[in-house]
Amino acid sequence: MEDKDSLIGKEMKGFKFSGYPTYMPHMQPYEGVVGKITFQDHNVTQIRFPDGRSYNYPYPESLNHLVVEEELTIEQILNNIKKLTSEL
Asked: HSE of 44 in the Cβ direction (CA atoms, 13 Å)?
């Protein structure tokens, strides 16, 4: 996979799935938990969770569970600065 497409280091939430790789019952507590992607190929995305456990998830479905940081517009940033400076 090309570097520009790499998900390694990004955050993703655990989720329930079917098919390959196999979803195991002990993965259930990690549904909705955010972890970091440590490996990926065209079939599998591996997430390491805060407690150190790692599990494999199907790559195509993983794209729907990435934690996306909200991008602020310049107007929102300026309004935030204005609010902060008015409170001083």
From this structure: 11
